[in-house]
Specification:
The chain is an alpha+beta fold and about 350 residues long. It folds into 2 domains: about 65-200, GAF domain (Beta-Lactamase); about 220-355, 2-Layer Sandwich (Beta-Lactamase). Helices cover about 50% and strands about 20% of the residues. The longest helix is centred in the first third of the chain and has 64 residues, at about 5-65.
Amino acid sequence: MRPTDRLAVENDRLRLRIEALERLAAESRQAEEARRQSEEEKRQGAEEQRRRENAVLGRVTADVNLSLNLESVLKQVAEGARELSGSDVVGVALRESDSDAMIFRYWLGAHGMNTASLHLDGGTGLAAKVMALGRPVRTTEHETISSLLAVPIVIGNRVEGIIYVGNQHPRVFTELDEVSVQRLADQAGLAISNARQFRGHVRRQEELAVLYDVIRLFTGPLAGDALVQAVHPVLGRLLDVRRMLALRWIPETGTFELVWASAPGWSPDDAALETLVLRRNQTIRTTDYLAICQTEGVRPSGFAHGLRYAVLVPMSLADRAVGVLALWSTDRVFSRADEELLTTVAALSALRLGR
């Protein structure tokens, strides 16, 4: 090959290498620009999310801190959590004061969701994990919900509630969602604590008024079924008394005699759990009536069909039970304060029935 031809070939190779390097440099600049643009978009997105989060948190926090109504607080917390996480459904469960049971107090957006399955009495489900860990837990494929995030509401050093946010459509919750809803849950804890203290004060005033009227009835001229019938609406001012039953124990026959029932349909064959209360002279209060009957190995009462919550209190004279006062509800759990009130009413009943 002639020198001039060789030089031309080398020039072509050099030109191609230069062009390749220039293309590589241009591609690198484009990649760097795309990376910077992507990072800027993420930064702006994160800033926008923080601004939105701060706006939602600021609004909800201001609203809940001004309210002493627990139902209003829970509604605003739930709606704030739904807005922060972009979820389809949201629920707020609170712990029963003297147990590990988490009971839903507010639920929004769910259709076909079995909230009863999320009641907890020392289990291994999602609520149990949140209570044990004290931090948010995410999961997928939960009943009709494709993804679910549960965030603890901590008051003091104890998990007192759980905020649930869920998606019925395929969208997984992120760590940012956890952080946002947890910030809301922290504010919710303060508001719920304030609302509970206020409610406790109001409850004590209402309880004193109810007790005054109950004592007035028991010291009046009414007796037997007329007395219990008159007490029923008075208790209804404070408790959910969907079903109420007063039974007198007849030692000679070893059976119960019906004093009064808030609805027809009671039968002596239904008194299995009531018999246990009388024999033990001890109250049974439960958030799952069917479960406690199964545990105790007795048949549920047909009188309480479809009612989940129950409290059965012995009517006692000294250390001897002379009857049983029983209440059932579907809408409200019976609390320890309810039990204490009913214990007083049952003692007054025992004085009248034991005459």
